[in-house]
Amino acid sequence: MKSKIIVIIVAFSVVAMFTAVSVFAGGAMRVSDLIWANDEIYDTIVTPATFNSPPAHSTDTFYNFASSGLFGQRPVSDSAPGDLGYNGGRWDMKMVVFTAAGLLAHDPDFDGFVNFELTSADQLLAHHALGHFVINDTGIYFECPLLPSRGN
Is residue 115 a contact partner of residue 106, using CB atoms and an 8 Å limit? Predict the structure, then answer.
């Protein structure tokens, strides 16, 4: 299970960070059980749609853990379908990096994997307030909608 999560996280991170160079050359790909929002796991359609600056319309925050220092934490969204403020999958990506205190709290057995996943923006922000990680702006804006999980 951990290796599947690693492959998915790495694949999505590469896509999200390099879609500006048309990784899929105009195509799209469904990725199952990839993004947490409001304690539910969502599938997504990864598209090559990126923006050089914030789009004129609203975005939601997408917290990416690809360079966090630990494996096993899937991205977390601050909004999902059905939420009043959900913007349809237009994202402002933030990069999350664990601090030394966060590494101890989230990986006490030192195996390089989180011992539990954060599954909502509320949990993420609570752990941020505890000093478990820093959140960095990336200047990356992209589009990929959240879809109900197929349970793969």
Answer: yes
